[in-house]
Amino acid sequence: MITGRPSRTFRRSGGRAAQDPAAGRLGRLRLGRADRDKYPRTVSRLRLVRVALATVAAVLVLALVATAVVAVVVVRRPLPEVSGELALPGLDADVTVTRDPRGVPTITATTTEDLFRAQGYVAAQDRFFEMDYRRHVTSGRLSELVGENEDALAADKVIRTFGWRRVAEQEWDILDPSTRDALQAYADGVNAYLSTRDPSQVAVEYAVLGLRLHTPAPREWDPVDSLAWLKALAWDLRGNYDDELARAQTFASVQDVARVEQLFPAYADDVNAPILSADELATTATRTAATTELDLTDDGLQSALASAQEALDAVPHLVGDGAGVGSNSWVVDGRFTESGGPLLANDPHLGISAPGIWAQVALRCAEVTAQCPYDVSGFSNAGMPGVVIGHNADLAWGLTNMGADVTDFFLEKVEGDVTVRDGETAPVRERTETISVNGGEDVELTVRETVHGPIVSDVLGVDAVQDAPRPEDAPGRQLEVALAWTALQPGHTADALLAMARARDADDVAEVAALLEVPAQNIVFATTDGHIGYQAPGRIPVRSTVTGGAVPSDGTWPRPGWDSAYDWQGYVDPADMPRALDPAEGFVVAANQAVTPTGVGPFLTKDWDYGYRSQRIRTLLEERLATGEPLDVEDMAQIQADQRNPYAEALVPTLLELPIDDAFDDDGQELLRDWDLVSDTDSAAAAYFAAVWRTLLRLAFDDELPDDASPTGDSRWLEVVRRLVADPSSPWWDDRSTPGVVEGRDEILTRAMVSARRQLTTQLGRDAEDWRWGMMHVAEPEHPVLGGPSLPGLVRSFVNPSPLSVGGGSSIVDATAWDASTPSYAVTAAPSMRMVVDLGDLDASTWVTLTGTSGHPASVHYTDQFEEWATGRTFPWPFTRESTDADAKDRLTLVPAS
Questions:
Q1: What is the DSSP string of 696-714?
Q2: Is 716 helix (H, G, I), strand (E, B) or coil?
Q3: What is the phi/psi pair of residue 85, to 5°?
Q4: Does 61 or 190 have the greater pLDDT score?
Q5: Distance of CA 343 to CAs 54, 234, 394, 503, 506, Å?
Q6: Residue 236: helix, strand or coil by DSSP?
């Protein structure tokens, strides 16, 4: 049974929308797919890697089309055995692996070590290439996998500069012994799978790469490979570094701190409620603010910051980046539910890829004891033991990005091998990294670090920094940028993830939070005995108060590294982090908004999501609770699928007041008059409004902002425009590209509507009534290596799921984000999974993931959840032993090797 509401699904075909019948992976391989190169799209940081692989893929195409038999053998050879009996060295006893109709494994073992050994084996069966690609990225060895390529080498240089793997190696030594045992058992399981197979039996991607490059058998999996993956998670969910750089770079164009701050407005507690009210906080602390002396007009500073931005942009994003990355989560008290137990919902918003980020799994000890304490089901990351988000028999938990400010850029005065510190000098540490390039010469990289962290401005763009004008107070010295980031210190996140799977109550969650240092994630939780709660974790820097100067030094602007008064002063005590248990209103919503009211609790950041998703969820919950009708799982799923547009709520009333005299140009505006403000796939008004939104951002802001700072259209820009609508004569409305003319709000909004009508006429047709949001707003997951537009269409059709139309949009509860700074309306980030847990009846819970549980393009489980995901539907999620046994479609027994 599938639950949820249906919606129309389209695929692109020659630029028109058409019904897309369900098709198997091999069916799409034979028939091919419409050319998508003509459509604007957001391309990966690794686009040049794909260009380099185009020749490889073309050779594979010739091999595949030569004979259907060869094609079937090549693509199906890596598919795993899912029934019968297989020997797994190191097991103490038999392990059973059952799979449901969507290939989701339930692993049952008698010992913890056997459980994680089997999980490693099954993960390698399903997703080893994904794991291998990730570890090449996180260790700065991408060039070793894909060969000579400019972007791959740039990524390797930056990640070696960060030293992700070096930190992971240090982390290994401080982990709890039980965590090390789990990581080692997982690695042993992976390696047992690899030891009996050549690369072509492991993944079809190795067959493609092997046509051009020497592709040796993959290295054995090391437990540190798993820990390094946590650094990628921490990087993509790190908080406000983009805003910090953007403030300084925007100032270079605007030259006015107050006007810059108008583009980064303070969170409005009176508009969108924080997660916790002051009354709900268990502890409070006061925040500090600081100001600093920086010459923001200095060309050397701006050049250094631009170099830092260029370097950081080279890092591949494995789970998502920038606008749209966030999450929804909420929990409702059992006194308001049909089952009598709490309901918990979660849908993390991350980048879309094929396969999707999450791998569903259940891990079960045959008998739950202190020695084997796991009975947990949920969403895992291939390459890591355990479950990241899910539930056990006693507790369910969801995670959303807290957005805490855990990075700072320190401006360093460098001369040779020293920096200035408090009028004296401090050494700059150096190390040499050797980057192996498959088929090419090794590359040596000198990495430099100050007391604050690695110097990122000289990974790329060194010459620009060295040649830049220097500050007056730093004669003879070079200005550079170092990155301070909490994840560059070894921590206990791996301990936290495994401890979360064993947690039973609020006290256990608090202990987990003290270990979950990076990435800082809001935790909402509920228990089968009726409690609900919230807990903020994370290693949060404490910044000192320094007075005097032009800009605040609270982490929102770069900091002077030459004055130790601006150094971090330690970290917030975990006991002081915000938390709540059983709040009086009976629910908690955590959707990336501010955690506490302004000025209450420890200072976490100023750069929150602005809370439009969270407020809409609160409103829907309040409305449903006011009816007195009990809530159930389906009610929660309907909220997850809500597509009401907050941008439209802020703008449409004003747009409808403006006269458009031309009857043709007025057609778009007419769509808005009867619009219900819901951005569903079939909405013509939603399509038109999206074009208006993008155009007004360009007209209002692009004339004054740097080229690389065009508005992305996320919640920050919604808040900026919402405030500007109330100020029709604000200087931001004036188009500086029209000298002698001073435009106001109404002129810009009218231009935007007329321009949008003409754009969509060209793109979708003359009749505005025929437009559809789903024709423009398409989810197109791509394979990270073989999925780009430079690859032959036959290969792309095989590894990339057919695009699907979706509703929703940025800052909508159904958060299928798109980037307004690009020409495309395609989805850039989206709910990477959806789950609803009923703590009163765990077998009534539901889930779905973006694409499917398999990483093999030839598997039916590569995309068998994608259409349901796109239309807001979910699958049953059985948990009890009886229910999972009844749902089992395949059964594999792993036995100890003789």
A1: HHHHHHTTTS-GGG----S
A2: helix
A3: -140, 135
A4: 190
A5: 48, 28, 13, 17, 16
A6: helix
Helix ranges restricted to H, 570-611: none
Collapsing DSSP to helix, strand or coil, 479 comes out as strand
* DSSP summary character for residue 678: B
Q: Token digits for 474?
A: 């730093």
CB atoms within 10 A of CB 883: 15
Residues in the chain: 898
Residue type at position 130: E
Helix H segments across 237-298?
A: 241-254, 257-262
pLDDT, position 559: 87
**Is residue 204 in some structural domain?**
no
Q: Which long-range contacts (CB under 8 A, 24 or more apart) does 21-25 make?
A: 22/867, 23/802, 24/860, 25/75, 25/798, 25/857, 25/858, 25/859, 25/860, 25/862, 25/863
Residue 21: half-sphere exposure toward Cβ, Cα within 13 Å:
4
Contact 696, 743 (CB under 8 A): no
Give the pLDDT confidence of 255-264 residue by residue, as tens digits.
Answer: 888 999 999 9
pLDDT of residue 322: 54
Query: Is 805 a residue of the active site?
Result: no
609-652 pLDDT, tens digit per residue, is 999 999 999 999 999 999 999 999 999 999 999 999 999 999 99
Q: Which residue has 């916790």 as its token pair?
A: 276
Mean of per-residue pLDDT scores for the chain: 87
Instruction: Enter the DSSP assignment of 631.
Output: B
Q: Is residue 542 part of a domain?
A: no
Give me the sign of the Cα torsion angle 109, 110, 115, 118.
negative
pLDDT tens, residue by residue, 138-188: 999 999 998 898 888 989 999 999 999 999 999 999 999 999 999 999 999
Q: 372-387: b or e for each residue (b if 16 or more CB lie within 10 Å)?
A: bbbbbbbbbbbbbbbb
Pairwise CA distance, residues 282 & 484, whole Å = 30
Phi-psi label, residue 792: left if phi above 0, alpha if psi -120 to 50, beta otherwise: beta
From the list 382, 377, 338, the residue with the least C-alpha distance to 133 is 382
Average pLDDT over residues 130-135: 96
The per-residue pLDDT for 294 is 55
Q: Rounded to 5 degrees, what are φ and ψ at 508? A: -65, -40
Q: Say which residues have a Cβ less than 8 Å from residue 501's Cβ, sequence separation at least 6.
A: 363, 374, 376, 386, 387, 390, 392
Q: Most confidently modeled of 211-225, 349-363, 538-552?
A: 349-363
Report yes or no on 671 lying in a domain: yes
pLDDT at residue 376 tops 80? yes
Q: What is the pLDDT of residues 396-409, one digit of tens each?
A: 999 999 999 999 98
The per-residue pLDDT for range 13-25, each reduced to its tens digit, is 333 233 332 233 3
SS3 892: strand
Please give the structure tokens belonging to residue 602.
């420890």
What pLDDT does residue 1 have?
37
**Within a domain: 701:** yes
Task: Please give the residue range of the domain that contains residue 755.
Answer: 646-677+684-771
Q: Say if strands 778-779 and 521-527 run parallel, antiparallel, or are unpaired.
A: unpaired
Q: How many domains does the chain have?
A: 1
Q: How far apart are CA 390 and CA 413, in angstroms?
A: 47
Q: Which of 772, 796, 797 is nearest to 785 (CA)?
A: 796
**Residue 538 token pair:** 């994370």
Calpha distance 517→494 (Å, rounded): 10
pLDDT: is 451 or 469 the higher one?
A: 451
Q: Is 236 annotated as a binding residue?
A: no
405 is in an annotated binding site: yes
Identity of the residue numbered 238: R
Q: What are phi and psi of 453, to 5 degrees?
A: 150, -175
CA distance readout (Å), 291 to 239, 242, 551, 558, 879: 21, 20, 5, 11, 53
Name the one residue in this structure whose structure tokens are 């075909």.
13
Confirm whether residue 394 is marked as ligand binding. no
Tell me whether the omega of the peptide bond preceding residue 519 falls within 30 degrees of 0, making it cis: yes
Q: Which of 226, 307, 327, 854 is catalytic?
A: 327
